[in-house]
């Protein structure tokens, strides 16, 4: 059974397209309501999960926090601020170093089936505001 495209799914996909702020489902829901006041929170959650499962976006599972969603599909890592909750992309050179470490482990005989890495701490803006 194929999933049908709906106006709501198209709206959620449009809101995620080229969105690099790593929004939560609630943030997408609030933006979706600006364009479609009748859309439900459950509809937004279902469509975000569908888009993630189909590979159109990434779902970033944050332990003890709200999941975030990412429109960047290439392998990269994230930093989650424990004060403001914002999610940031880790610089590409760090991603490349981790990728090289994974390749080295594979050369040593490890069979890596997947990995997930989220750095946690306090972002520069929160540190500047004295929230250590």
From TrEMBL:
Keyword annotations: DNA-binding, Iron, Metal-binding, Repressor, Transcription, Transcription regulation, Zinc
This protein's record includes keyword Repressor: yes
Cofactor(s), by name: Zn(2+); Mn(2+); Fe(2+)
Keyword Metal-binding in record: yes
GO annotation terms (biological process): negative regulation of DNA-templated transcription; regulation of secondary metabolite biosynthetic process
Listed GO MF terms: DNA-binding transcription factor activity; transcription cis-regulatory region binding; zinc ion binding
UniProt remark on cofactor binding: Binds 1 zinc ion per subunit. Binds 1 Mn(2+) or Fe(2+) ion per subunit.
Pfam family, one: FUR
Binding site residues for Zn(2+): 81, 84, 123, 126
Binding-site list for Fe cation: 115
Transmembrane segments: none
Protein family per UniProt: Belongs to the Fur family.
PANTHER family in UniProt: FERRIC UPTAKE REGULATION PROTEIN, ZINC UPTAKE REGULATION PROTEIN
Listed name of the protein: Fur family transcriptional regulator, peroxide stress response regulator
Organism: Treponema berlinense
